[in-house]
Design brief:
There is one protein chain. The protein is mainly β and 115 residues long. It contains no helices and 11 strands. 0% of the residues lie in helices and 50% in strands.
Length: 115
C-alpha cells in the first residue's frame, strides 16, 4: 500500500492550496480516507475525512467552511482544498487510509506553511 501526498507549499494568510493524495496497492473505493495534520511540537489532529462513495465529508469546527475534501475513486485520489488559510494551519498534512481501523496506513506527508 502506498499513499503519496502532494501539493503542499508556502502560502500567505488568506490564500488557498490544494492537496492531493494518490493511492496504490489497495482497493481504493473500499476505504474511508482522512487527512490528519501535525504541527511542530504537537500531536496529530484530524482535519477531514470522506466516506467510500465521497458523499459524506467530515470536518472539524476549525476546518468546516474553509476546507473541502473530495475523492475520485477512478483515479484513486483524494483531495483537500484549503481556503482562507491561517498561520495556525501550518503543519505536515498526512493522508490516512482506514484511520483508527485495522488497516490504517499513512502517507509520508506534505508540508503546508502559512506565512
Amino acid at each position: 500500500v502506498q499513499l503519496v501526498e502532494s501539493g503542499g507549499g508556502l502560502v500567505q494568510p488568506g490564500g488557498s492550496i490544494r492537496l492531493s493524495c494518490s493511492a496504490s496497492g489497495l482497493t481504493f473505493r473500499n476505504y474511508f480516507l482522512a487527512w490528519v495534520r501535525q504541527a511542530p511540537g504537537k500531536g496529530p489532529d484530524f482535519v477531514s475525512g470522506i466516506n467510500f462513495d465521497g458523499d459524506k465529508p467530515y470536518y472539524t469546527p476549525s476546518t468546516k467552511g474553509r476546507f473541502t475534501v473530495s475523492r475520485d475513486n477512478d483515479k484513486n485520489t483524494v483531495y483537500l482544498q484549503m481556503n482562507s488559510l491561517k498561520p495556525e494551519d501550518t503543519a505536515v498534512y498526512y493522508c490516512v487510509r482506514d484511520l483508527l481501523g485495522a488497516e490504517e496506513s499513512w502517507g509520508q506527508g506534505t508540508q503546508v506553511t502559512v506565512s
